[in-house]
Write a structure and sequence with these properties.
The complex is a heterotrimer of chains A (289), B (282) and C (272).
Chain A lengths: L3 H29 L27 H7 L11 H36 L1 H14 L8 H10 L5 H25 L4 H9 L4 H38 L5 H11 L4 H35 L3
Helix pairs in contact in A: 2-10, 3-4, 3-6, 3-8, 3-9, 3-10, 5-6, 5-8, 6-8, 8-9, 8-10, 9-10
Chain B lengths: L27 E12 L6 E12 L3 E5 L6 H8 L7 E6 L2 E2 H6 L3 E4 L11 H12 L3 H14 L15 H13 L5 E5 L7 H18 L2 E6 L2 H7 L2 E5 L6 E6 L8 H5 L1 H19 L1
Parallel strand pairs in B: 3-8, 3-9, 6-7, 7-8
Antiparallel strand pairs in B: 1-2, 1-4, 4-5, 9-10
Helix pairs in contact in B: 3-4, 3-5, 4-5, 7-9
Chain C lengths: L8 H6 L5 H28 L10 H10 L1 H35 L1 H15 L7 H8 L4 H24 L4 H9 L4 H37 L7 H10 L3 H29 L7
Helix pairs in contact in C: 3-11, 4-5, 4-7, 4-9, 4-11, 5-7, 6-7, 7-9, 9-10, 9-11, 10-11
Classes of the chains: A mainly alpha (289), B alpha/beta (282), C mainly alpha (272).
C-alpha cells in the first residue's frame, strides 16, 4: 500500500498523464475528423489547423522543442530570449513582492494597534478584494513611468506590490489577533510595552498567517507583473513577450512556449515561499514555542 | 478467557412490574456473545473488549457503567454495527447487528446531539423518516408527535443553534425514536449537561420509555444516573473491558424524587460504587 | 491571484447576520471616510496642481462618467458578459468536478494538489492562446480565461467542503443505514455550502479581473479593458478612470449578488 507523499505524487502524475493524453487525443481526433463533429458539418469548438510555427494546437513535444530553435528567422534561440525576459520579469516580481509584503505587514500592525484606522479603512480593504483593481494597471504603469528617476520596470513592480499588499494586510491582521487570549492577559500582567508585546507574542503567533498572506502574494505578484507588462508601452518581460507573440498569428508555437514559462514562473514563486515556510516553521516547532 | 464472571454477585431477581422473572436468552432482544474488540495490531494493539456476553431482555432498561476506557461505548457501537467485533457475535431480535442496522431496528443517541444546524428542529426529527422514504405529510405528523412527546412541540420551526444543550439532546432523542425502533442505544447522552438539567432529562427519558416500551441500552459513567434509570446495570472493568458484575435494580417504576431519596437507592448506588472500586484495586 | 487560502473564509463571513441597525452603524464610519477621502483628493489635486496623468480630480471623473454613460455601459457590458459567462461555466464545472472527486478517493488525491498548484499559475497569461483558438472577437475567448480562473478555487473549495462533514454526523447517517446518495444530498452538500459560497464570492471578484485582463490582451475594441488602454494611450486620463469606476461598480454588483444569494440560501449562519 503506497502511502503519503508518494501516493499524492503518483496521483498528481496520473492526472498529468490524463491531461497530456486529452491534449494529444483531442489534436489527433480533430485532425482525423476534419475539425467537425462526427457525422455533421458542425465545427468543433477548438479548430486544429496550421503547421510549424502557425500550428495553433501543437504537439506538446513541439512546444518543448521550440525552446531550442530560433524564434525569428535566424538569430537568437527562443530559450535564450525567454531566459533574459524571464530575468526581467523576475526582478519586477521580487521587488513587488518584497515591497508588498512589507507594506502589508506594516498596515496590518497599524490596524491591529489602532481601532480607529481599522474602522475607517477596513471596509475599503475588503471592498478592494471585490473590485477589479487590475483595471488600474495601465493607469498605474503609465503614471509611474512619467516620473523621470524611476525606471520603466518600476511601474510594473508597483502594480505587483499593489496586488500583494491587500492579502498581506488582511492575513497579518488576522495573525496578530491569533494569540490566545490567556497569553495576551499574561503579557498585560507583565506591563510590557506594545513593542515588546508585538515582537514577543503577536508576531510569533502570526507567523502561519503571514505565510498564508505571502503565498497568496506570491501568485498575485506574478499576475501583477505580467499584467503590468502588457499595460506598458514596451514589450519587455515575459508578459510583454506573450503579448507580442499573441498579436501575430504565425507565432503560435512561441506563444505556447512563453505561456508555459509564465506558468512555471508562477509555480516556482509559490514553491519558493512554501519552502521558506517549511524551513521557518521547522525552526519554529523545534524551539518549542 | 472466562465469560462474565459477575453472575454470582447479581442480586436476586426482584423485577419491576411487567418484566419476565428469569432472563431467558431466547426472550432477549439483544444478545451479545463473547464479543472481543481489538484496535490496531501487533504490539500496539489495544484490547477494548474481552469476551463480553450479555442478554438484554425486551422492553428493559439496561445501563452499561464503568471507568473511562472500559469499552462501554465500544460495546454499544458493536451492538449498533458501527464497529465490527474482532471476535464474537451480536444478534438483535434474531438478526445480525448489520441486518438490524440496515432494517433500521434501532435508534441511536450520541454524546453530542449531532443535529444538522441547517435544518429546523422538525426537519431534523424527520431525517430518518426521509431516509425511510415516508411521504411528506406522514413524516410531518410523526415528527410533530415525537416533538410533543419530548415536550418541544413549539420549537418545531426553530433551528438547533437557538436551543440549549438539553433541548438539543431531546430533539436527538425524538429523532432516534421517530421511526419507532424496538431498541434505543444511548451513549452518555446527558454527559455534557449540568447536574440539574441532567436529572430533569432522566425524568423525561423514563417518562418516554414507559410510554413507548422500547428496549434501552444506556451508557453512562454516572452511578446515580445508572441506578435511577435502569432495571439492570452491567458494571464493566477497566481496559480490557470485561463484565465485572450485573446488578439488578429492584426499585419500582415509576421513579421520581422520592426514589432518589429512598434508602434502597443509596444502597444500590453504594453497591455499584464498591464494585467499581474493587475493580480498580483488583 | 490565488484563492486557496479562502478555504477558511466561510466561518468569518457567514457568521455575520447583521440587523438593519447594525449594518447602518457599520456603514456610517465607512461612508464618512469615503467623503473625507474624496474631499481631500479634490483639494490636494487642485491645490498642488497635480497633472491629470497622475491623478485627475474626482469631480472631473464624475463628469466624464455621467457624460459618457452610454458608451461606458456598453463597454462594461462587453467585458461583463464574458465575466458572467465564464463565472457560471467555471463555477459549474468546478463544482461538478469537485462532487465527482468526492466520490472517488484517488481523484481527490490527484485533483486537490493540482487545484492548489494551478492556483499559482497566472492563468490570465493564457488569454492570447484562447484568442488564437476562438478568435479575439468572440466572447468565448475571454469567457474561457475567466472560466479557468474561477474553476480552480471552486474545485478546491468544493472538495474541501464536501469532506468537511462532522464525524458525528457521518456516524449518524451510518447508524440510520442511509444509502450513499442520500448521505451526499442530505449531509455533504449542506455542509459544503459555506465553502462553495466562499469560492463563489472569490470567483465573482476574480471573474471581473480576469475579463478585464483578457481585454488587455486584445479583442473587442469597445470592451472596457481595451478602452482603458487606448484612453491612456490617447491621454484621456479622466476617461480611463471613469471606465475603471464603471468596472468597479459592475464588480461590486456581481459580488453583491453572490453575497445576497449566500444570505438567502444559507440563512443558518455558523452556529453549529
Amino acid at each position: 500500500m503506497i502511502t503519503g507523499r508518494r501516493r499524492t505524487a503518483l496521483n498528481v502524475l496520473g492526472v498529468l498523464v490524463v491531461l497530456v493524453a486529452l491534449w494529444e487525443g483531442y489534436r489527433a481526433a480533430a485532425l482525423a475528423l476534419g475539425n467537425t463533429w462526427p457525422g455533421s458539418q458542425l465545427g468543433l469548438p477548438i479548430v486544429v489547423r496550421g503547421s510549424g510555427n502557425a500550428d495553433q494546437f501543437p504537439h506538446l513535444w513541439d512546444i518543448v522543442a521550440a525552446f531550442g530553435r530560433p524564434y525569428r528567422g535566424g538569430g537568437e534561440l527562443l530559450g535564450t530570449f525567454l531566459l533574459s525576459e524571464l530575468a526581467y520579469t523576475m526582478r519586477e516580481v521580487a521587488v513587488g513582492f518584497v515591497l508588498g509584503v512589507l507594506l502589508g505587514f506594516l498596515l496590518g500592525v497599524l490596524f491591529r494597534h489602532s481601532p480607529l484606522a481599522e474602522k475607517g479603512l477596513m471596509p475599503y480593504v475588503i471592498a478592494s478584494q471585490t473590485v477589479p483593481f487590475i483595471a488600474f494597471a495601465p493607469i498605474l504603469v503609465v503614471s509611474v513611468n512619467q516620473v523621470d528617476f524611476l525606471p520603466v520596470w518600476m511601474g510594473v513592480a508597483v502594480l505587483s506590490m499593489y496586488l500583494v499588499f491587500f492579502p498581506m494586510t488582511i492575513n497579518t491582521l488576522r495573525g496578530l489577533r491569533a494569540a490566545p487570549a490567556t497569553a495576551e492577559e499574561l503579557m498585560r500582567s507583565y506591563a510590557v510595552s506594545w513593542w515588546t508585546r508585538l515582537w514577543k507574542l503577536r508576531v510569533p503567533a502570526a507567523v502561519p498567517f503571514l505565510f498564508v498572506g505571502m503565498k497568496i502574494g506570491a501568485t498575485a505578484a506574478v499576475v501583477g507583473a505580467i499584467v503590468g507588462e502588457i499595460s506598458a508601452p514596451s514589450s519587455a518581460g515575459i508578459g510583454g513577450a506573450i503579448f507580442a507573440f499573441g498579436r501575430v498569428s504565425n507565432n503560435a508555437l512561441q506563444l505556447f512556449a512563453t505561456t508555459v514559462v509564465a506558468g512555471l514562473l508562477g509555480v516556482v514563486t509559490y514553491l519558493v515561499v512554501v519552502l521558506l515556510e517549511r524551513s521557518v516553521l521547522r525552526v519554529y516547532e523545534g524551539s518549542g514555542s | 478467557m472466562t465469560t462474565s464472571e459477575g453472575s454470582a454477585t447479581s442480586t436476586t431477581p426482584d423485577r419491576a412490574a411487567g418484566e419476565p422473572s428469569t432472563p431467558d436468552a431466547d426472550r432477549a432482544l439483544v444478545s451479545v456473545r463473547e464479543v472481543t474488540k481489538r484496535f490496531g495490531d501487533g504490539s500496539d494493539a489495544v484490547t477494548a473488549l474481552r469476551d463480553v456476553s450479555i442478554d438484554v431482555p425486551s422492553r428493559s432498561f439496561w445501563s452499561l457503567i464503568g471507568p473511562s476506557g472500559c469499552g462501554k461505548s465500544t460495546l454499544l457501537r458493536v451492538m449498533g454495527d458501527l464497529i465490527e467485533p474482532t471476535a464474537g457475535a451480536v444478534t438483535v431480535g434474531g438478526k445480525t447487528a448489520a441486518e438490524a442496522r440496515r432494517s433500521r431496528d434501532y435508534g441511536m443517541v450520541f454524546q453530542k446531539p449531532t443535529l444538522f444546524n441547517w435544518r429546523t428542529v422538525r426537519r431534523n426529527v424527520e431525517l430518518p423518516l426521509e431516509i425511510l422514504g415516508m411521504n411528506r405529510d406522514e413524516r410531518r405528523r410523526r415528527a410533530d408527535e415525537m416533538l410533543q412527546l419530548v415536550e418541544l412541540g413549539e420549537f418545531a420551526t426553530k433551528r438547533p443553534g437557538q436551543l440549549s444543550g438539553g433541548m438539543q439532546q431531546r430533539v436527538a432523542i425524538a429523532r432516534a425514536l421517530s421511526f419507532e425502533p424496538s431498541l434505543l442505544l444511548m451513549d452518555e447522552p446527558f454527559g455534557a449537561l449540568d447536574e440539574i438539567t441532567r436529572e430533569r432529562m432522566n425524568d423525561e427519558l423514563l417518562r418516554i420509555w414507559q410510554r413507548l416500551q422500547t428496549t434501552v441500552v444506556f451508557v453512562t459513567h454516572s452511578i446515580p444516573e445508572a441506578v435511577f434509570l435502569s432495571s439492570h446495570i452491567v458494571v464493566m472493568s477497566p481496559r480490557p473491558g470485561r463484565v465485572l458484575a450485573e446488578i439488578d435494580v429492584d426499585l419500582p417504576y415509576p421513579r421520581d424524587e422520592e426514589t432518589r431519596e429512598s434508602p434502597r437507592y443509596f444502597e444500590l448506588v453504594t453497591e455499584v460504587r464498591e464494585t467499581l472500586r474493587q475493580a480498580q484495586q483488583g | 491571484m490565488s484563492a486557496t487560502a479562502q478555504v477558511t473564509a466561510p466561518v468569518a463571513s457567514t457568521g455575520r447576520r447583521a440587523t438593519l441597525q447594525g449594518a447602518a452603524s457599520r456603514m456610517v464610519p465607512a461612508a464618512l471616510t469615503a467623503l473625507l477621502v474624496l474631499v481631500l483628493w479634490e483639494a490636494i489635486v487642485r491645490g498642488f496642481a497635480i497633472r491629470p496623468i497622475f491623478l485627475p480630480t474626482p469631480s472631473a471623473i464624475a463628469m466624464t462618467f455621467v457624460r459618457e454613460l452610454g458608451r461606458l455601459g456598453e463597454a462594461v457590458w462587453i467585458t461583463g458578459r464574458a465575466a458572467l459567462l465564464g463565472f457560471v461555466l467555471g463555477a459549474g464545472a468546478g463544482f461538478v468536478t469537485g462532487a465527482l472527486a468526492a466520490r472517488w478517493q484517488w481523484m481527490r488525491e490527484g485533483l486537490l494538489p493540482m487545484g492548489v498548484a494551478f492556483g499559482a499559475i497566472p492563468i490570465v497569461a493564457t488569454a492570447p492562446i484562447f484568442n488564437l483558438w476562438f478568435s479575439s472577437l468572440s466572447v468565448w475567448s475571454n469567457a474561457s480565461v475567466v472560466a479557468l480562473v474561477v474553476f480552480f478555487p471552486m474545485l478546491v473549495n468544493t472538495i474541501t467542503g464536501l469532506s468537511a462533514t462532522d464525524d458525528g454526523h457521518e456516524e449518524l447517517m451510518h447508524s440510520l443505514a442511509a444509502p450513499r446518495h442520500q448521505t451526499f444530498t442530505k449531509l455533504m452538500i449542506p455542509t459544503s455550502l459555506p465553502f462553495v459560497f466562499g469560492a463563489l464570492r472569490v470567483g465573482a471578484a476574480l471573474a471581473v479581473i480576469a475579463a478585464v485582463v483578457a481585454d488587455f490582451f486584445g479583442g473587442f475594441r469597445s470592451s472596457a479593458g481595451f478602452f482603458i488602454k487606448t484612453l491612456m494611450a490617447t491621454a484621456d486620463y479622466t476617461g480611463a478612470w471613469a471606465t475603471v469606476a464603471a468596472l468597479c461598480l459592475f464588480g461590486l454588483a456581481l459580488y453583491g449578488s453572490v453575497a445576497l444569494a449566500e444570505r438567502t440560501l444559507t440563512p443558518w449562519g455558523d452556529d453549529g
